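Bench log, entry 3. Co-assembly request; chain sequences pasted below exactly as received.
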Amino acid sequence: MTTDTSATPRLAGALRPALSPARTVVRWGVRHGLPAVFLERGARRGDLVGRLLRDSSVRDEPYALYEELRARGPVSPGSIGLVTPSHAVASEILRSDRFGVGWDRAQAPRLIRWALRFGDELDATGVAEPPSMLVVDPPDHTRFRRLVSRAFTPRATAAFEPVVQRTADALLDALELRSGEVDLVETYAAQLPVLVIADLLGVPTERREDFLRWGAAAAATLDPGLSFRRYVAAERALRAMHAFLREHFARLRRDPGEDLVSRLVGLPDDEALTERELHATVMLLLGAGFETTVNLLGNGVVLLDAHREQWDALRAAPSGWDGAVEEILRFDSPVQITGRTAKEPVTLAGREVRPGTRVTVLLGAANRDPDVFPAPARFDVGRANAREHLAFSAGIHYCVGAGLARLEGVVGLRALSERFPALRVSGRPVRRDLQTLRGFEHLPVALHRVARR
Ligand code: HEM
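Structure output for the full assembly:
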């Protein structure tokens, strides 16, 4: 039997919701258009969070603005709730069960509730929307987290070191064949994490250029107030990723391997994830696995190029790389911003906070808090307490992949410095046009090969 849906547009829409421009407009409006209006208005009135999120010059160099915010106190009002640049307050919020990542949709105005329902569609769902683990509270969060954290224990991560080393070496071998200036992000910093996470998740590494393209577009959905043009590009990327995942899950159901995703698709009935939860979990692991670590590597190379004596010292004493990676994470954090919503009345730095209040937590500012880090604007790979940074957050959402990211940072940077000790940044590095994530899109370097004995 064939069904002609062309004569019944409503039915056609139901069968092919992916093609409905109206839904895309509604999704963009509620997730980005509305916040953009608030932020824009705030920015015009001098609100610093509005400026941080809307003004591209501040986005490139946010640290002066963080200090302006710090001068206003540990918690101050902004255009979307409260904001904190304080390490102590950020730690308290992130570890408190009085704050959550979710928000009660039932409390939203009717129009917003309608818009969320109308725009809801699995294939357009990104990692900043439920049921992504990042944005759900217990008990669902506990359930998802338990299922994946076994693959990221310290022992499992350590067992991955040879894969990371082998992958870095192979990429560096390929770089040896290049001459002149190369883009280190394109050829190395982006490649290493995507190849490692693809290996860990058992997704085909041959698709890595697709993952990188989709990830770059979809990463923008972490930022509030995205323009319609960028939202449409992000949604296209999300659809492609979901389509890939759907086929991949079908393949693994027929022919499972030993990897984490095979385990997730084959869970017994009492533990099984719904299709939507499975998509959200694997998409988050895949995206978080490379969209952040690329920034750690790129930011690290730029910082060490600007502090050449520290690069040389690390080359002379490679045991210092562990501390150096912590300092890079602290000094120029790959994830700058997160947020929480108060679930009940709470007092924060002496201020009464009502339930439902959103608090923007500036991880990048907390990591420059002089109460914790003396002379915080000084980059020092020997800093004794660099590891106290909040670059991986804290509390129940503490980064699952922190151990893997540290391993990739240490192995990736050490291997690069050993192979190309005279490497120099040779042109203007270009920052990614993102607010939540901080890193470089292009990083021109001269490799300056030295003859190997
Ligand atoms: C330098 C690299 C990385 C940085 C800076 C980073 C940072 C973060 C931060 C700040 C959060 C928590 C956000 C919040 O509290 O709202 C987070 C969560 C998460 N990260 Fe990472 N990450 C990195 C690498 C990775 C890697 C390699 C993976 C690999 C799988 C990963 C997987 C995750 C997952 C699954 C979560 C959600 C955890 C939860 O909600 O319970 N991350 N990451």
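Residues 133-134, 145, 197, 284-285, 288-289, 292-293, 296, 334-335, 338, 391-393, 397, 399-401, 404-405 surround protoporphyrin IX containing FE (CB under 6 Å). DSSP finds 21 helices and twelve strands in the chain.
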